[in-house]
Each structure stands twice: as C-alpha cells, then as structure tokens.
TrEMBL record:
Residue runs in coiled coils: none
Compartment(s) of residence: Membrane
Membrane topology: Multi-pass membrane protein
Protein name: EamA family transporter
Regions that span the bilayer: 12-32, 38-60, 81-99, 105-126, 133-150, 162-180, 192-213, 225-246, 258-276, 282-300
InterPro entries (UniProt xref): AA-Vitamin_Transporters, EamA_dom, EmrE-like
Family, similarity comment: Belongs to the EamA transporter family.
GO cellular component terms given for this protein: membrane
Database matches in SUPFAM superfamilies: Multidrug resistance efflux transporter EmrE
Superkingdom of source: Bacteria
Primary location class: membrane
C-alpha cells in the first residue's frame, strides 16, 4: 500500500512537471531572439539555485533523511552535480537555440520522442526493461501527442520536414533523455530539493565559466519586459519546481514512466498558445487529447516503481 501511495505521488509530481515545463516552449519562443540561450540559462540557474537553497533551509523535511537544510554528505562526490548540470543545462541551451526558428508545437513534437529514448537508455543504465504494460501507454500517448501537434491532419504529418531548429532541439532532447535515469543512478540519499538546488548551483558556475563573455556583453538594462517575466517563470517554475518534481518522481517511478508525462506537454502548449493569443487548433484535436488522457490513466494503474 505504501509503495502504491509513493508511486501515485511520483505521478502527481510529473503531472505538475509537464504543466510547468510547457510554458517554456511558448514563452521561450517569445524571447528566443531577444537574449542568447547561454546568458538566459546562466541567470535562470542562479535564480533557481537561490530559490531552491532557501526552500531547503526553511522547509521542514526538505533535506536529507527528513531534516532541514544541507548536510555534509550531500556534497559527497560533487562531480555528480556537475555532470547532471551539464545534461540539464545543455538541454535548455539547445532548446532555446532551437526555438529561434522552431514553432513551439513543432518543438513539442520533437519532445515527445524523449520517453522512448529514455526507456531505451534505462535498460543499460538502470536495468529497467521496457515491459508491455509501459510500452502500450507510451505508444498510445505518442499517438495522441502526434494527433494534437499535427491537428489531426495525416497530410501534415506526412509532409513533416525537420528544420534546423527542430534538429538542434532534438540533440537537447537526447541530453534530457539521459538526465532522467542519471538522476536515479547518481543519487546517494539526497532529497529532491537538495539535488535540484545543487544541480542548478553547479549549472550556474559551469555556464558562467563557459559563457562569461556573452553574459557580460548582454545589455541587461535594455532587455524588454517580456524577457524578465520569462526569466522569472523559467527560474521558479520551469527550473526550480520542475527539477524538484522530476527528482522526486525519479525516486519513485521507473525512468520510462517519468518521461512518459512529456506526452501531456503538447496539450499544455496549446493552452499556453491560447492564453498568449496565438490561436489554437479547433475541435479536431480532442481525439488526441483523449488518447493522452487514456495513456496517463493506464500509467496511473501500473504504479509499481
């Protein structure tokens, strides 16, 4: 019973994750040509690290073994956080580089390939074989996501041409697919918030060292307001919350199930596009939405971690 309850918590965390990261696509496309991806990622990691460190220090049970604050053991083998930061930050840099030319929904289409890549990597890395019970909802969810993204038009799917933005973002999704099983493989008892705080802190240091010239060359005072709004959202929701949610879920669910929730992202992207006044597809997308919901319900039934 406890195992089922913990797995359900993992599913809830990933549902929140999918809602949070979806805003990155629409908001990221709005500001992709206003600021470079490296300065944006560097500053978002700094802001997220500060928010997460504050949460670790203040929230009861946020640290190791249900305690508050950081422990000396959390810094054991610090190279782990550097490696995770490279994967996580590399994904963001390639995402925003791709969004300079790719439409948010097109990027969402590429993102739906991540669960299958994660499932393939989880076998050699974690010994987690892709069972039929997981493969079936992965396939159903993929079909639903493709239906939504291409607005139920088979012709649009058949005419798909991969542009440079989509190709760049695909490389980022490969890094994201590796990141999920690595979270579980490298964890040594750290809580979700502690891991997320240290990963983003290491990410800030690494990307500042790499792109310091570009960061200093950015005219921060001249940036439009939408960049700062996007930066705040990315730091709090798409980085701090999302990283914590994924780490929390990765300790309770197989990696393939963790990444399965990416199939909900296109639905959230459509809602974001509607909220931003960019227009959305009509009723034709509802069958795809229904397939995604069915896939997630199937996953909720198979709750063994």
């Amino acid at each position: 019973m406890r195992g089922r309850a913990e797995a359900l918590k993992g599913h809830a965390a990933m549902l929140g994750f999918s809602a949070a990261v979806s805003g990155s696509f629409s908001l990221g496309a709005l500001v992709a040509n206003d600021i470079g991806p490296v300065p944006l990622t560097t500053v978002r990691f700094l802001c997220a690290a500060l928010v997460l460190a504050l949460l670790v220090a203040l929230l009861p049970g946020a640290g190791r073994a249900g305690r508050r604050g950081f422990a000396r053991a959390d810094l054991a083998a610090p190279w782990r956080y550097g490696l995770l930061a490279l994967l996580y930050g590399g994904y963001f840099v390639l995402m925003f580089e791709g969004l300079k030319t790719a439409h948010p929904l097109a990027a969402g289409a590429v993102f739906t390939l991540t669960p299958l890549m994660t499932a393939a990597l989880a076998w050699p890395m974690l010994g987690q074989r892709l069972r039929t019970a997981v493969a079936a909802p992965l396939a159903v969810g993929a079909a639903g996501a493709v239906w939504v993204i291409f607005r139920g038009d088979p012709g649009a799917l058949m005419r798909l041409e991969i542009g440079p933005g989509e190709a760049i973002y695909f490389l980022g999704c490969v890094l994201h697919a590796v990141y999920a099983p690595m979270l579980r493989l490298l964890n040594r008892g750290e809580s979700a918030l502690v891991t997320a705080a240290l990963v983003t802190a290491f990410g800030f240091v690494l990307f500042l060292a790499w792109g310091w010239a570009e960061v200093l060359a950015t005219d921060w005072a001249a940036l439009p307001a939408r960049v700062w709004v996007t930066l705040a959202y990315l730091a709090v929701f798409a980085t701090a919350f999302a990283a914590s949610a994924m780490q929390f879920a990765a300790q309770r669910l197989p990696a393939s199930k963790v990444m399965a929730y990416t199939y909900a992202t296109p639905v959230w992207i459509i809602l974001w596009e509607l909220a931003l006044g960019h227009g959305v597809p009509g009723w034709v997308v509802l069958p795809g939405v229904a397939l995604i919901v069915v896939a997630l319900l199937i996953l909720l039934r198979g709750d063994q971690a």
